[in-house]
Amino acid sequence: MAEETTTQKQTGKERQAAFLVSALERAGMQDGVLLNGTMKQTPRFYDKNLRVSPVNALIMAIHSDMGNYRTNSYVLFNDTKSRGEAVRKGEKGVPFTWKNVSEYVSKENPDERISRADFKQLSEADQARYKPNPRDDVYVLFNIDQTTMPHVHKDEYEQHVSQYGGVEPDGQQASYKDKRIAVNQFILSMRDNLVPIRRDPTGIAHYDGKRDTVYIPAQKDFPSYRDYVQEVARQVAHATGTTGRLSRDSGAAQKEMLVEELASAVKMLDLGMPAKLRPETMKELPAIIGQMKENPQFAQEVMHDVNRTVGMIKKAESGEKIQILENPAEKRQQEWASQFPIEHVPEKFNAVVMLKDDDGKWTLAMKSENTPVIAVHPSKEDVSLYFDVIKNDHDEAHVQEFRTQMAQKYFSLYSKNQTPGVNLFRSNASQEALDMISKVNAFKTKDSKILLVATIGDEKQKPKLVSQEQWQRIWLADDKQDYKTHLAATLYADVLAGKLEEVKHATSPKVDGTPLHEEKEQRDNQQTVQQESAKKQEEEKRRNSPEQKEKERREEKAKEEATKAETKVAATIALSPMMKQFMDLKGKHPDALLLFRVGDFYETYQQDARKASQILGITLTRSNKHNGPDGKPAEMAGFPHHALDTYLPKLIRAGERVAICDQLENPRARQNSQEGKEEQSKQAVKEMVVAGTKMQEEQHHGMHR
């Protein structure tokens, strides 16, 4: 059958995504079984020796399962006629995409294109100036069970089914034995050419990014042999996405999860085995299906990554060595260090955050002490690198250095006007619409939802759901209230539009059309102008009088004093439980440096943090969770808890008296207090250490975050 038109092409791509969604929905109702429950052979053309791409194989297998067909063998509509067969009436085919490289495009000028025939006529040097510009042709295929072949050529059909068809459940165990040689060969090929695969004694299959090694438990630790095989395929697929290989977007966890499942499913098809979703994926399945339905681009990105992932695995199976490239993060940091040296960047960054803007583009936001938040769009390579380092680098100091260096780079480019800024905190709302918003409040509910409530005019609106990205921006914004107003203008755009329309109608003049009415309207307008002018003159005279100026001076002074008092009170009220506890224990031990156990770290705050930073040479930062008594982010410095034996002697040698405040209970335990909003744990001064001594102290209880 001829390829589909441009309009049909788009429909074909949408249909492929729809088939995939149907398969995921079926898996949710079939204990996770995704496809090929009857162990049919991998999808193929019945009468052509053509390559079937991984995604096409997936879609064909899904279509075959949906129709309960006996094989995964397919034909084109026109080819059935040449054999005296036909597609049965009312049958619907499956879309098949084919990369057609009939055109090449110039690397320097995208508008310069030449045909495949002209490209072949060029010299080797000239050919290097061009790259393929493939287009997706879409064809419709039909399973041989959808044709008249089972009746017209019955013997030929039955012979094909016996060779490529599935098996009944009671015969599957025997079939697994036949496939063990192919499975073992696959594992050896991956081990020799792609990624080391080793036995894991802990019973947990995983990929270790630091060692670039896949760890798999013994076969007996899996519910079945097919579960063992597919988990090996999943972990190999995961290894292909790491930096230095395919560098897939590590920031999209659900997409990566689906890519690994589908890539492993393709391998299971190659082996003629069923593919099943693991329990972790089943938990995320509703959210994944929701994304695929709401965002067509999500499905396209997943299928693109599946083709790339399986393509790399097949190269390794064919004997090609897949060398992991030099660590791009380290290489990039070395380049940044020379191009954007730290001494040329005057700012110190309190926060370096990667988040999406209103258009869904990844945006790097940098917050420093002396300048407003700066936000820019990094390159696609830097975004991928950022998430890869955050996910795979377990050295917190190195990660912090990486963030700083990336901020250095883009701060420098922004300062030189080489990279435009992005406004994360403004909307497109008019000032008239913003003025209608009189009050805005954002908060988290008990079930962790984030809501925003606004009062527009005198009417309090119904709460609106706030995304995690928008909530993150609230705390990042220099003027939080201003951003919340703009956020409300976005969330309540329809309400504001209605209110503005009401005001417009209410203030629109009524047209009479008579000369007498127009004359009266002119007199009224003139009289109004005169009255307003007289009022302005009177107000100006009153404002410039000595008595009024003295009154304003006294009021301004009183206002400043009140503001200072309010700020001091607000700062006290705003102290987090951790800072209240710090202030309480500091009051009882003023001459001691307090070391607080917080999770896997010991942390110091305020004046203690400054001392610890100088003595130990550790980084002094500003907390984004705790404010000090002055209302500003609290200073803090810390080190891993297992390094206590290294850092404590340094503090003692420096003459410090150290109070070690350990946790008395699990910091993850939640207590349902009346406020019900904070995660609490008790802290106490467990030991007091001075030069040559170590004393037990009384316990002081407090709360932490």
Structural class: alpha+beta
How many helix segments?
24
Strand order of the largest sheet: 22-23-21-20-24-25-26
In whole angstroms, the N-to-C terminal distance is 66 Å
Low-pLDDT ranges = 1-9, 569-573, 666-681, 694-705
Query: Could you report the average pLDDT, rounded to the nearest whole number?
Result: 81
Q: Give me the count of strands.
A: 26
Helix percent reads 40-55%
**CA-based gyration radius:** 34 Å
Range of strand content: 15-25%
Write down the overall geometry: globular
* Biggest sheet details: 7 strands, mixed
Description:
With 705 residues, this protein is α+β, with helices and mostly antiparallel strands. The strands form seven sheets. A seven-stranded mixed sheet has the order 22-23-21-20-24-25-26, with helices on both faces. The radius of gyration is 34 Å and the shape is globular. The two termini are 66 Å apart. Residues 1-9, 569-573, 666-681 and 694-705 have low confidence and may be disordered.
